[in-house]
UniProtKB/TrEMBL annotation:
It comes from Umezawaea endophytica. PROSITE patterns: OMPDECASE. The keyword Lyase applies. Belongs to the OMP decarboxylase family. Type 2 subfamily. GO terms for biological process: 'de novo' pyrimidine nucleobase biosynthetic process; 'de novo' UMP biosynthetic process. Residues 16-262 form the Orotidine 5'-phosphate decarboxylase domain. This is Orotidine 5'-phosphate decarboxylase. The lineage of its organism: Bacteria, Bacillati, Actinomycetota, Actinomycetes, Pseudonocardiales.
């Protein structure tokens, strides 16, 4: 089954919320956990217990695992495997991007069947040219997985690059949207090439009408965006939009029940 099909099914069953696992050092301290690989593991596996089977998508942020070296990466592998075993879609937020030949190696790491870090999808960066992502898009399709391509990020600095205008008059962001739309053309119910569009934007300055793919909308909660922003930004194009929240949910830990309740409150709010 394609990633788009599996995602559409998960959203129909559990709503569109994506919850992030971002083990910030400050959150580990708030949870009374040591700032080492054992604390990271307790934090991450508590999140798995709280979120598995409850929301359509869980997004571990790779950077916080990589910070602990090989032990941290081993914890990330366990998180990915446990969520998949629990029938919960995993988006590994690693924002990989490189020349095509190296991109093929990233695709083998994050999108190949049986690879220890392969979730159901991975975030990728198109700023070496959208075409450099071809090996990842091909691997995603071949393995029933997906990619989420950065297009209009939630941070205020993103617009300097993303609003730059190409010789054909389109913004860089719109050209990324158009390339994703071309990759998704004809797919049903949704294509496998998603976009990342921040829920924090002042306005939706790209045309998503032809995308036919999912949109991850980070910035919900801790970065200030709420339900009204989703409506304002995405309006009639809300189909396929996955609001994503990390810290605003995670601050309710370490109690599993409280953590799960926080995720379910946001899940119901965005539904
Ligand atoms: O444009 C982007 C792309 C990715 N992110 C990531 O999402 C989460 C947001 O965490 P919060 O605690 O909910 O702010 C984090 O992993 C970012 O790296 C983003 O925020 N914006």
């Amino acid at each position: 089954m394609s990633f788009g099909t599996r995602l559409a099914k998960a959203v129909a069953e559990r709503g569109p919320l994506c919850v992030g696992i971002d083990p910030h050092p400050g959150l580990l301290a708030d949870w009374g956990l040591p700032a080492d690989a054992s604390g990271l593991e307790r934090f991450a596996l508590t999140c798995v217990e709280a979120f598995a089977g409850q929301v359509s998508l869980v997004k571990p942020q790779s950077a916080f695992f990589e910070a602990y070296g090989s032990k941290g990466v081993a914890v990330l592998e366990r998180v990915v495997g446990s969520l998949r075993d629990a029938d919960t879609l995993v988006l590994v937020d690693a924002k990989r991007g490189d020349i095509g030949s190296t991109m093929a190696a990233y695709a083998a790491a994050y999108l190949a069947e049986g690879a220890p870090l392969a979730g159901d999808a991975v975030t990728v960066s198109p700023f070496l040219g959208f075409g450099s992502l071809d090996p990842a898009i091909e691997a995603a399709r071949a393995n029933g997985r997906g990619v989420f391509v950065l297009a209009r990020t939630s941070n205020p600095e993103g617009s300097t690059v993303q609003h730059a205008v190409l010789p054909d008059g389109r913004t860089v962001a719109q050209s990324i949207v158009d390339s994703a739309a071309a990759a998704n053309a004809g797919a049903e119910p949704l294509g496998d090439v998603g976009l990342v569009i921040g829920a924090t934007l002042a306005e939706l300055d790209v045309d998503l009408s032809a995308l036919n793919g999912p949109v991850l909308a980070p910035g919900f909660g801790a970065q200030g965006a709420g339900v009204a922003d989703l409506r304002r930004l995405f309006g009639a194009e809300l189909r396929g939009v996955l609001p994503s929240s990390s810290r605003d949910v995670l601050r309710h830990g370490p109690d599993v029940a409280a953590l799960r309740a926080a995720a379910l409150r946001v899940r119901d709010e965005v539904a």
